[in-house]
Amino acid sequence: MASVASIGFIGGGNMAEAIIKGLVRGTFPAGGILVAELEERRRTLLEERYGIRTTAELDEVVRTCEVVVLAVKPQAVAEVLPGVAAHFSGEQLLVSILAGVSTAALEAHFDGSPRVVRVMPNTPALVGAAATGLCPGQFCRHEDLLLVQRLFEAIGTALVVSEKEMDAVTGLSGSGPAYVYTIIEALADGGVLEGLPRPTALALAVQTVLGAAKLVQESGEHPAALRDKVCSPGGTTIAGVKTLEERGLRAALMGAVSSASRRSRELGGK
């Protein structure tokens, strides 16, 4: 499957919308996207916002689309998968964004040799800045994996990882935006505490995080090396960093990744 003309989504929630927006903003034609979503209001919103097609019938997506993206909650997988499997053919590719659900668990619902790729994107896909991890199932072809990687590179960075690393991907980049939002909010609150108007504090906090991330990305330097460059002896920055270390920011973030990764394993029954 070197190229694809139709992509169907089972579920039209926030993550599905983020992916759809990225695809439409890229090079994929809106007319080639079909979403199965039970909520009529949600279907109308997606149609009007992105010019795609929607349906209330799950089987319509499975019968007509070359690539089927499973974008429901992990808790709904047992209810949804039998309907997908009933109409699925060996010529189709299943892409799952279900947190914690392994490719083997998905494959067990299908007859034959279903081609499955497990993907974990994140919501910055809405602005074309997703961080996505993906891994192949046992029957996935090399060209399938390349196709899915190319599709998700249209909405940011997409890296191939092993299946055993996917829970860590979920804990780091899948859940990571929420950690960063909390950091941005806290930085802005610190600015307000020190007398800045809130709009000014928030704008500075957002740009500081964005600029720091861009510098790490474009310089190729380790974050610790960049931090050392701005920590002048006896200066303001090293005083601030000392407080972060004393209050356990590093351990808190590492713990957040571990907690989210553990929850991903729990959702997958591991």
From TrEMBL:
GO cellular component assignments: cytoplasm
GO biological process: L-proline biosynthetic process
Localization in the cell: Cytoplasm
Pathway: Amino-acid biosynthesis; L-proline biosynthesis; L-proline from L-glutamate 5-semialdehyde: step 1/1
Catalytic activity field: L-proline + NADP(+) = (S)-1-pyrroline-5-carboxylate + NADPH + 2 H(+); L-proline + NAD(+) = (S)-1-pyrroline-5-carboxylate + NADH + 2 H(+)
Keyword Amino-acid biosynthesis applies: yes
The protein's Enzyme Commission number: 1.5.1.2
Database matches in Pfam families: F420_oxidored, P5CR_dimer
Coiled coil: none
Entries under SUPFAM superfamilies matching the protein: 6-phosphogluconate dehydrogenase C-terminal domain-like, NAD(P)-binding Rossmann-fold domains
Role this protein plays: Catalyzes the reduction of 1-pyrroline-5-carboxylate (PCA) to L-proline.
Family named by the database record: Belongs to the pyrroline-5-carboxylate reductase family.
Protein name stated in the entry: Pyrroline-5-carboxylate reductase
Protein encoded by which gene: proC
